[in-house]
Design goal:
333 residues; alpha/beta; TIM Barrel; eight-stranded parallel sheet; 8 strands
């Protein structure tokens, strides 16, 4: 039996009754990949049909199926083609969740020259193509790996990167910011310098809880709150609420005999959700699954149950923003 098969069996140990099964949901952050730990359309549908009313999704780049020939700068366009074809296949079964948005990668250090790559993404993805993620996660500790784009230190503050962001804005695309908690000031600098660029912060800004950051959660949370409040003051910045069940966050659900329950997620994570919604407001917040990455710790139906429990005391209008409307507005779905 493969590692993946064993893990899926482990996930099945926790099963919960579905809360508010009719609530319409847009999942604005998931990945797709072939290979040993595959997560393709059938796997996405297995999750999105597991009790919650997931209507639409947005794919976020994860360095899959790049082109293997031609100019290196254009190779990420292969991922857009890969997902576009899956999205078209999904339309044959319209009663299931539809992939309505694609966020790809382009090397923004190319500055104004990145326009060619953006145009190539749009040519392949059409109206499905919504934005660019160029991850900037960098840490000076050897125990902490840098983001998958292998960014240099202070990537988001480089002049050429800023020129690349200008190109995104001119092309009417959005930018996904993904880095670590101690780099939130860099995202704020981007937001201040590009007030008309639509920016969404991934995964609460990446609070690290392993290696040298282990057992420093209270200190990190205090600093994170200060930086997040500053970032939220820029009205062009939105926040994705999710992605805290990754091993790097240090909650260690993946090491348990059983996966996390919704109540365990709430116990460990709620303060991040509550504060984010407080400073951004529901109209700039969207719940996200970050699947299959967060599947390392929790199953899909359980994480959405946790979101529904955390939003239980909000008005119906605010719930609609958190679960659907903010994502639809941000990505023009």
């Amino acid at each position: 039996m493969s590692v993946l098969e064993n893990h899926l069996i482990w996930l099945k140990q926790v099963r919960e009754d579905i809360l508010e099964p009719d609530r319409p949901i847009v999942d604005p952050h998931h990945h797709l990949w072939p290979g040993e730990f595959k997560y393709l359309l059938e796997d996405l549908w297995r999750d999105t049909q597991d009790g919650h009313n997931i209507l639409k999704t947005v794919f976020i780049e994860c360095s899959q199926e790049y082109l293997t020939t031609g100019e290196a700068s254009l190779m990420p366009v292969g991922e857009t083609k890969f997902v576009r074809d899956i999205a078209l296949e999904a339309t044959k079964q319209s009663n299931k969740a539809q992939i309505c948005g694609i966020v790809g990668h382009a090397n923004l250090l190319l500055g104004a020259n990145v326009k060619v790559i953006l145009e190539a993404h749009i040519a392949e993805g059409g109206s499905l193509f919504k934005g660019i993620r160029h991850a900037g996660g960098w840490d000076h500790h050897d125990e902490i790996g840098n983001s998958h784009h292998n960014p240099p230190e202070k990537l988001y503050l480089l002049e050429s990167f800023s020129d690349g962001l200008d190109a995104i804005e001119k092309t009417n695309l959005s930018f996904e910011a993904w880095q670590y908690h101690h780099q939130l000031k860099e995202v704020a600098a981007i937001a201040q310098a590009h007030p008309n660029l639509k920016i969404v912060l991934n995964h609460f800004g990446g609070p690290i809880g392993i290696g040298p950051y282990e057992n420093k959660s209270d200190e990190i949370f205090g600093l994170w709150k200060e930086d997040l409040k500053k970032l939220a003051s820029f009205e062009n910045v939105y926040a994705k609420l999710g992605g805290l069940a990754m091993p790097i966050n240090g909650f260690n659900f993946h090491k348990q005999d059983k996966p996390a329950t919704s109540d365990e997620i709430i116990e460990k994570h709620r303060k991040f959700y509550d504060f984010s919604i407080e400073v951004f407001g529901p109209e700039r917040c969207m719940f996200e699954s970050n699947f299959p990455v967060d599947r390392q710790s929790v199953s899909y139906h359980v994480i959405w149950n946790a979101f529904k429990k955390m939003a239980a005391n909000f008005s119906e209008e605010d719930k609609d923003y958190l679960f659907r409307k903010t994502a639809e507005n941000f990505y023009s779905l």
